[in-house]
Amino acid sequence: MTDENSSMPFLDHLEELRWRLVKSLGSVLVGAVITFYFIDSLIDFLIQPTQSLATPMDLQVLKVQGMFMIKWGISLIGGFVLAIPVLTYQIWKFIAPGLYMNERRYVAPLIIFTYLSFLIGLTFAYTVIIPFSLDFFTSVGMEGIQNNFSINYYFNFITWIMIGSGLIFELPVLVFILSVFGLLTPAFMGHYRRHAIVVVLILSAFITPPDPVSLVLMSIPLMLLYELSIGVSWLVNRNKQG
Questions:
Q1: Measured by CB atoms within 10 angstroms of the end CB, which terminus of the chain is less buried, N or C?
Q2: What CA–CA distance (Å, rounded) separates 105 from 176?
Q3: Global model pTM greater than 0.90
Q4: Residue ranges covered by each domain of the chain
């Protein structure tokens, strides 16, 4: 840790934070514009899970400005997803002056690891959780009552699941960062494995519909993520000791 970095005035820290936030916001907006260019194809892709349900469902626009709000909402979410590497880099550069030099070499693996983990979480939600969730909720209807859903509520539902799944799949990244700072060790995580199982079941219950199949489908990858995170912590601690 250099004296220059450790003695940086508080106002300089605020100024640097402001520019990091400006760059982060700019990257999200650029990503949103790129997403909006492909918005119709993206919407077709996102409603694809409704086409193969055992109980058909119809999506309806119930507000005059409904599709307008949906397109811009999805564009902003897409902009955030596309900007994740930039956001990760800006966060790391802000905290990097407080790190020792050997800890700064983790920035490239962190950016790649963060983005891949989030994309895997999105993919898992789209291919597993959402189809099972839609099948469950459409199957609890009644005869004579049609499954007509507001397209706004539909997109709110699937984006909540996808973003939530993407964030949960960032668990190894969080463990990576905490291990770099020396706040987590493999021994600590192994000791609290049983407590982690309880937390995993609670998180799975929040994300998935209230049926045991979906709960198991979400719990299994979360437990695998926890075990993977123990391995990540072990690698980080081994490299630091070496």
A1: C
A2: 13
A3: no
A4: 1-167, 170-242
